[in-house]
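Q: I'm writing up a methods section and want to include an example of the input and output format. Could you take the sequence below and give the corresponding predicted structure tokens, formatted cleanly so I can copy it straight into the document?
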Amino acid sequence: MQNLENKVILITGASSGFGEDAALLFAKERCKVVLAARRIDRLQKLAEKIQSFGGEAIAIPVDLVDSLDVDNLVKSTIDLYGQIDILFNNAGIGRVEWFENHSLERDINTLVQVNLIALMQVTHEVLPYMLARREGHIINMISVAGLIASPLITSYAASKHGARAFTDALRREVAPLGIKVSGIYPGPASTEFGSHVGKNETYRSVRSTFNTHMTSEYVARRVLDVAKRPRRSLIIPWWYRIVTTFDMLFPVVVDWILYAFSKKNHKLD
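A: Here is the clean output for your methods example:
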């Protein structure tokens, strides 16, 4: 089991949800936590909360779609601490709607930029420092949408499938060089993220049917577990492994089920 004391962890999307809860847990393990997100007011409040119980945290505002911001984030962390031991790529946005109703700018371009391109860019900036030390752990928050592509989340699923492919390919590149790479695949959880994906009623009814009742803190605890005991991937809750395996082994059956779902619910004006 890895000892996390004094490890430097950089967390993107740290202002809410999984990122915020993970930051608190890592700080309680005596990590030095670098908080990155756009909402500096929330980051500062989180940093103050961590400092109030004796933890160490700094807040760095960053717009992940701006490559200069990403460069500044990583260099600022290196200037302060000299290293990055763990990178938790957690930032992400979503959209739930039939694909023809997606906006080109926000629901396709920006979504893919944040969920996939920014994840790759942050990793690209951090990786050389890890390689120089032959040590480090990259943890990518993906989603079960990176394993199963479903109607209503076409852009999101595309970005998450890309993130999964990147995670797997990178792990196979750098594992022999001492760098660990892990992918986290949670099902639906109770976070602020869920309230921002859109108001499609069909999706909300499906989500309630498959509600995992997972809290953000529970997912964050599992991220901490992966940091302590590195593994290639983690699907949560456990029974989603059955769903994803079924999709892999019997894709035609899954197609039939989802065709029926779309035919019933996809109403064109």
